[in-house]
């Protein structure tokens, strides 16, 4: 069975696409309803966890005022995964946020691949909450407990990444922004050992907020375009490059995501656009020398086709991974220093 990108989201009971009905969320436990296979696209925090953009992003994001464009991911490769289990998880998360924060949650939106190019086999569910104030300790613990249940991949669901920002921390805009609360499956062991998410500066939120503002689907409360200020292009570039130094630490353990993230960083710095993983890879493949293309082409195929349990790398490709990464890092370095070269033109 195939589906158009984001089709399953249309089955969410949204009133005029801006809010769930007051009494329209089923109360059954999430684990009893999940059918989607897991895996996490959230091996690293938010900046490039799957969000893409829109074809009319130049108008929505104010390019004429020096702000980034955001481009929608065209349908490519196999059809996006039609995932009724993800719909149930999203309903559960919206219900959880409503129960814990009530009217202090000004808006909850879905963003990332679920509403853009469609869920891929290893995609997670990305949600953003804009809150009126910082969360209390009891609210943090209640959100965490609920998310540990809803996001549990061992129960057959998709991993969840949920970020809470306070409106005053992101409007008016300043850099770096602060995440008031962020849940990601990559920290499950720490949460289970007692870690509770606390407010902390998060430069990569500039990317998340840009994509959520452009294409986020409001599930409850006000839409993200009403709650978020646009992020200036200069701050988007700073945020894009901020996480690069640590990426190589994960190159062996999370090869596909690191390679795709590096391609997106290069593409964003060169063009000012935020693109989906596969389309950013296409952009990079057109500019790489032939000897550095096979590794990225393979990572792109894995993203489109495979769960993490199905991923494999041949010895020949594995040997090419680090030289490829170094080449892309060199291109990123040239752009950050303000230089241009033949491989970096948009």
Output mean pLDDT. 77
The largest pleated sheet is described as: 5 strands, mixed
Which descriptor suits the 3D outline? globular
Helix content: 25-40%
Structural class: alpha/beta
Number of helices: 13
* Order of SSEs: HEHEEHEHEEHEHEHHHHEHHH
- The number of domains is 2
**Which spans have pLDDT < 50 for at least 5 consecutive residues?**
1-9, 13-82, 339-346
> How far do the termini sit from each other?
37 Å
Q: What portion of the residues fall into strands of 2 or more residues? A: 5-15%
**What topology, given as strand order, has the largest sheet?**
6-4-3-2-8
Report the radius of gyration as a whole number of Å. Answer: 19 Å
Number of strands: 9
Describe this entry's structure for a reader.
The protein has 346 residues and is α/β, with parallel strands linked by helices. It has 2 domains: 1-229, no CATH class; 243-346, no CATH class. Helices cover 39% and strands 11% of the residues. The strands form 3 sheets. Strands 6-4-3-2-8 form a 5-stranded mixed β-sheet, with helices on both faces. The protein has a two-stranded parallel sheet with strand order 1-9. Strands 5-7 form a two-stranded antiparallel sheet. Helix 3 (137-150) links the parallel strand 3 and strand 4 (160-166). Helix 2 (84-101) packs antiparallel against helix 3 (137-150), helix 10 (255-271) packs across helix 11 and helix 10 (255-271) packs parallel to helix 13 (315-336). The protein is globular, with a radius of gyration of 19 Å. The relative contact order is 0.16. Residues 1-9, 13-82 and 339-346 have low confidence and may be disordered.
């Amino acid at each position: 069975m195939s589906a158009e990108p984001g089709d399953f989201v249309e089955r969410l009971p949204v009133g005029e696409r801006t809010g769930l009905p007051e009494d329209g969320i089923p109360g059954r436990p999430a684990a009893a309803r999940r059918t989607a296979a897991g895996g996490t696209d959230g091996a690293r925090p938010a900046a490039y966890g799957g969000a893409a953009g829109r074809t009319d992003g130049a108008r929505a994001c104010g390019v004429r005022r020096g702000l980034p464009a955001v481009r929608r991911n065209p349908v490519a490769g196999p059809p996006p995964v039609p995932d009724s289990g993800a719909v149930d998880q999203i309903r559960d998360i919206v219900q959880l946020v409503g129960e814990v924060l009530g009217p202090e949650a000004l808006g909850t939106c879905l963003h990332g691949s679920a509403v853009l190019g469609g869920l891929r086999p290893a995609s997670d569910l990305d949600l953003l909450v804009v809150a009126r104030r910082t969360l209390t300790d009891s609210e943090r613990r209640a959100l965490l407990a609920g998310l540990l249940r809803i996001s549990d991949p061992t129960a057959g669901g998709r991993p969840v990444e949920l970020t809470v920002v306070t409106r005053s921390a992101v409007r008016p805009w300043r850099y770096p922004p602060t995440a008031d609360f962020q849940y990601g499956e990559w920290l499950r062991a720490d949460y289970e050992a007692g870690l509770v998410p606390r407010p902390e500066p998060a430069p990569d939120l500039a990317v998340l907020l840009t994509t959520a503002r452009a294409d986020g689907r409001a599930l409850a409360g006000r839409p993200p375009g009403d709650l978020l200020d646009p992020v200036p292009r200069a701050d988007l570039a700073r945020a894009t490059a901020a996480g690069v130094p640590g990426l190589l630490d994960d190159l062996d353990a999370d090869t596909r995501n690191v390679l795709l993230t590096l391609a997106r960083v290069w593409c964003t710095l060169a063009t000012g656009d935020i693109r989906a993983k596969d389309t950013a890879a296409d952009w990079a493949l057109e500019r790489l020398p032939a000897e550095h293309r096979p590794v990225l082409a393979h990572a792109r195929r894995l993203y489109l086709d495979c769960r993490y349990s199905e991923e494999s790398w041949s010895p020949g490709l594995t040997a090419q991974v680090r030289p490829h990464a170094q080449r892309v890092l060199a291109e990123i370095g040239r752009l950050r220093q303000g230089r241009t070269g033949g491989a970096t033109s948009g």
